[in-house]
Amino acid sequence: MAAEVYRHAIGTFQSHSYANNVNHKQRLRNNFVRLVNNDSVSSNVLLSRGARYSSCSNRRSVIRSSASQTSVADPVSLSPSRTPTTDTNKKSNEAALILIRHGESLWNEKNLFTGCVDVPLSKKGIDEAIEAGKRISSIPVDVIFTSALIRAQMTAMLAMTQHRRKKVPIIIHNESEQARQWSQVFSEDTKKQSIAVIASWQLNERMYGELQGLNKQETADRYGKEQVHEWRRSYDTPPPNGESLEMCAERAVAYFRDQIEPQLLSGKNVMIAAHGNSLRSIIMYLDKLTSQEVISLELSTGIPMLYIFKEGRFIRRGSPIGPQEAGVYAYTKRLALYRQKLDEMF
Q1: What is the pLDDT of residue 144?
Q2: What are the structural domain ranges in the chain?
């Protein structure tokens, strides 16, 4: 099944050529002019597909001023990370943070509890990942973080096939010294045309314990609708031998603080392809949601969400709800200039 999914993905790549967007170029240029002249566009863009978001979206979190380096390829033009900065002015850098919940998996399609079982995308999930890539195709990406699960990694890879920079995502293997040596790229030119992909189990979906592989409706019939709802939507009640959202948040947020925030602090533009609960945990941290507010937060599969990190704050700029991302994202001037540069290059 996985092989069939990948074969379908390859065929879909060919049918989703970037040339399909040429007819929209003039309209997108008009949007660019409007966006450059209106950097104060409201960030309160509604989530698509009926997804709900808490009313406290304007709250911000203050980033820690720690810094660490990850082995990543050279960033794209206009990235502030190309210019050396001091600790004093680092926080004035602007960086993009894109969050994407993976596309529909084969077990989502079958209405099964998936958790940490490593299940690939369905055909619909592949299409969702490609569509997500189109919607972020003009937003800079310097480094990608995914979970250790194939559905998140497939989503990241498929999305990047649609990016206008056409850089190649390369998974960084750090599990052993031999893996690091064997996967090393020696061509500097190739490195400049690559994007590092860092996979981490800390970004995995929460572990659903004994529910993994069970049909959700049958489980509700067996244990009762209220009990299953509590396992799925409460903050601190785990399913049998599984993780609660609170437990998932502990590992996901700690990883975000230690490994991802320093990238943003240095001016890197970051994409995270992960899961409903690990991303809910991160959004809880970014928007400073309470444990009661986060349980009502729903994220649709394959819908990118954009944050801007600037002056020590995370500012939510929305989620695309239309066929073309340019008219929906509240662009900053820097992102609009990046898009203009892409228009000139391609």
Answers
A1: 98
A2: 94-345
